[in-house]
């Protein structure tokens, strides 16, 4: 089985035409077939991953998989082919590869148009892929396999009144804290890589509870339980994903659980890295403390992704 290279879609058109490029992507839309000069029929489609959305042509023939439909995840091979009758400009043709490994993480296969700040989604993918502990990566992939949770994490504001109130502010604030913790820990010698990376993961997720409290129905609970209520629910939100690594890697599970517990209880003596997370949290908040207050915090009900040109065709064929 050939290895899938998975080049970012944004880079595919810029690569050498002599390269054989393969990757796993999500099919966003399909247009009606169009006959080219050679007599072959091609359908214009759009593929996407976290890096970009790319229009491609797929040849319509018997070997095209029957389950090729908007929303499917599949491996593709790219090549330049003259599709138009003028035979002047080569188009990017994607050939579905049915028998290739098709796994990519939910983060890598997320539509960048489903996020408020697409560049921050690239930062999130880079941060996760920079981790060395496979179990921690598996934990994050399991957590973000909940698409609604992932979308809200990437779109709502971090705070209602004080900092990062803009759409996408929660993700940006979380990245600033996690990247700051990662940078600080890399300057330390002789530290434990597992515990360091567990701290990076907790730093990334430290405000995840705000996804719940962004909902109007949770406002009463937020007011009565105090400003740290979103931290109290963090462990319960992470519990199902923690179970995925409990038996896969008990050592990683213990390190992550201990870091989460120490952060929620503010036990810096138990885990000194908690103090670093708090410090980076405060630093990120202070940078944005003068931001516009309370205008765009909350669930992304008033925000909508960019409308694709082929949307009407999808609805008509559904």
Percentage of residues in strands: 15-25%
Count of strand segments: 5
Mean pLDDT: 79
In the sheet with the most strands, the strands line up as 3-2-1-4-5
Structure in words:
This protein has 318 residues and is an alpha+beta fold. Helix content is 40%, strand content 16%. It contains twelve helices and five strands. The protein has helices at residues 118-129, 134-143, 147-153, 169-186, 193-205, 210-213, 219-225, 229-232, 234-246, 250-265, 273-287, 311-317, and strands at 21-35, 41-49, 52-59, 73-82, 90-97. A five-stranded antiparallel sheet has the order 3-2-1-4-5. The radius of gyration is 22 Å and the shape is elongated. The protein starts with 20 loop residues before the first strand and ends with a helix. Mean pLDDT is 79; it is low at 290-318.
What key attributes describe this structure?
alpha+beta
Task: Explain briefly what this protein structure is.
The protein has 318 residues and is α+β, with helices and mostly antiparallel strands.
Question: What's the topology here?
Answer:
Layout: E1 21-35, E2 41-49, E3 52-59, E4 73-82, E5 90-97, H1 118-129, H2 134-143, H3 147-153, H4 169-186, H5 193-205, H6 210-213, H7 219-225, H8 229-232, H9 234-246, H10 250-265, H11 273-287, H12 311-317
Antiparallel strand pairs: 1-2, 1-4, 2-3, 4-5
Helix pairs in contact: 1-4, 2-9, 4-5, 4-11, 5-10, 5-11, 9-10
């Amino acid at each position: 089985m050939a290895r899938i290279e998975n080049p970012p879609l944004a880079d595919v058109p810029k690569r050498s035409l002599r390269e054989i490029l393969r990757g796993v992507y999500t099919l966003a839309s399909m247009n009606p077939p169009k006959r080219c000069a050679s007599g072959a029929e091609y359908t214009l489609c759009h593929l996407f991953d976290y890096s970009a959305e790319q229009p491609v042509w797929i040849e319509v023939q018997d070997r095209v998989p029957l389950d090729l439909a908007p929303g499917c995840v599949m491996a593709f091979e790219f090549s330049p082919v003259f599709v138009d009758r003028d035979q002047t400009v080569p188009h990017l043709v994607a050939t579905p590869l049915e028998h290739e490994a098709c796994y990519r993480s939910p983060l890598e296969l997320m539509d960048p148009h489903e996020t408020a700040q697409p560049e921050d989604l690239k930062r999130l993918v880079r941060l996760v892929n920079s981790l060395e502990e496979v179990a921690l990566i598996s934990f994050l992939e399991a957590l973000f396999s909940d698409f609604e949770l992932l979308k809200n994490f990437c779109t709502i504001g971090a705070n209602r009144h004080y900092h990062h109130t803009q759409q996408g502010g929660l993700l940006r604030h979380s990245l600033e804290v996690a990247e700051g913790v990662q940078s600080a820990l890399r300057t330390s010698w002789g530290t434990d890589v597992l515990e360091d990376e567990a701290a990076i993961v907790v730093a990334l997720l430290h405000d995840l509870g705000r996804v719940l409290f962004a909902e109007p129905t949770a406002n009463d609970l937020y007011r009565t339980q105090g400003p740290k209520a979103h931290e109290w629910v963090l462990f319960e939100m992470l519990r199902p994903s923690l179970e995925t690594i409990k038996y896969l890697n008990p050592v990683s599970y213990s390190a992550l659980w201990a870091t989460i517990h120490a952060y929620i209880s503010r036990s810096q003596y138990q885990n000194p890295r908690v103090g670093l997370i708090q410090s980076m949290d405060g630093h990120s908040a202070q940078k944005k403390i003068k931001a516009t207050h309370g205008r765009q915090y909350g669930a992304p009900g008033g925000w909508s992704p960019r409308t694709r040109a082929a949307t009407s065709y999808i609805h008509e064929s559904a």
